[in-house]
Amino acid sequence: MVSGLFIIITSQNYIKKIVGLAIFQTSVFVFFVSLAKIIDGTAPILNSINNVYSNPLPHVLILTAIVVGVATSALGLAIVLQIYKNYGSVEENEIKKEELKENS
Amino acid sequence: MNILLDDAPALVVVLPLIIAAIIAFIPSSRLAWFITIVTLVFHLLLSFELFQSFSSFGTIIYEFGNWPPPWGISFKLDGVNIGLQLLFSAFVLVTSIYSRKIFLSEIDPEDSGKAYSLWLLAIGSLNGIILTNDIFNLFVFLEISALSSISLISLGAGTNRKALLAAFNYLVIGAIGATFYVIGVGFAYAMTGTLNMNDLIIQLSQYSEGQLAIFAGMSFMLIGLMVKSAVFPLHLWLPPAYSYAPSAVSTLFAALATKAILIFFVRILYEVFSIYNGYLEIFLDYILLPLSLIAIFVGTIIAIYQNDIKKLLAYSSIAQIGYITLAFSINDNSGVLAGFVHIFNHALIKGGLFMAVGYLAISLNDRVTLESIEGYGQKYPITSYALLICGLSLIGLPLTNGFISKLYIFQALYSNEMFLTIGLVALSSALAVIYFWKIVEKLFFSSKGYEAKTEDPAIYIPIWIIAISIIYFGIFSSSIIEFSSIASESLILGGSN
Q: What are the structural domain ranges in chain B?
């Protein structure tokens, strides 16, 4: 989780920031799935043999969150593509330099 | 008709979302705009019906698929959100009428039809944020609204490519905020096994001493929501996003998006976590109150030094969000009431200001800066006078609704004997005069003698609707006060039992 945040904050490259964001989000998904685990639990299928099963609800929630995460990454990459077309770079410091030149 | 009314709480959210999907395939932008308007008129009627059934039957809880609350997702319409829902619906309709000409001139004509699809997505999801009673469902709506607003902001790249950077910043910061919120939801779920807010209140009461995991979860959730509602110092995404987005989009977001999230924020604070009074007081007194005061000053002072008027308004939004959170940080009925009053009033004021500045922007066909609008009070008098009214209301002049909200904030502070804070708030209002006066001076007191040009009624009529309602609610303020007192009472009293 922290490594994902670290990448977002420190990296200069916009695509790397998106990757960091994905790592950050995925770690939270894993946290949710770990909440659901019950020792000796199996899949929640109703039958006579297994009475102990893992909680399915966090899995379902994370299914939704994964979809949201995919959409976020896709939109982020689409914007990065447009930034590249407009500025000719995806490096934060180069774009900042260009902005300064424009203002002066 | 009866079936429609039974499902009205779901329809106000689902209707814009479904129409959004249809509009995406319509090639003609005029038809897309027309369908949007029809949808929103229908939406307003539904909201009005909901409001009437609320006033006769009280709180409405809508269960999706008839699953009873702890299992299924539910929507709740109570005193807290019913007034905002109605205002939201009416305001969105006015903004959409106004948006047509702005979209045509600020973004690609080919894209302007599809922009309405995103527009409706944002409206539907913001409605969902206001109505939902399920903490995970909120996250989903939060992300739909964030993604659609990011796309709308990036459409501003047609006039200025910096919009792309603003959109990207918002995407990254917003996604971090939302993920923080989800971590908090995870902690809350781990401790209580429920996501429904009413059930959460019941389940939390068995941990009345408070477990570390709950406090951690609470902090994560609150910080996530503070990022989303741009509470200082988590506001950095807001000024560029508002100032480079197409003007109609800035209007919608400045007026409503942060407000919807703030409503949910106070719900979490005062309704769900109200049993942890000790923690709540520490959070309010040592975190939210100082941050709001700093936000008011930082926002106002940065606004004074801005040359670009949309940026100036964005920074003043940060100060105004500071006023709202300041009022909410007073832990009693009068404070929360003042907060709700200011949410209503500020939505109107900032919406009107962004609308008027948006019109100046398309007639200039450039960024609106202090130099470029010199003498425009004579060139576009109708829009400029509407801007003047909204601005005077922002400062808090009597006879405008801004005065009413300042009055209630002062009253709440006075009754809690926070005299130092009163002084600081009064000082900041005086500072607000400086930045607004700079605009007025350029607009009206200029030696350049322009002749008055004809203005577009499709644009100035919506602006004047807002301006007149600002004055109307400044003189006949009782309806807003009533909404707000219903809201604050159901929040404070409803939360404690």
A: 277-497
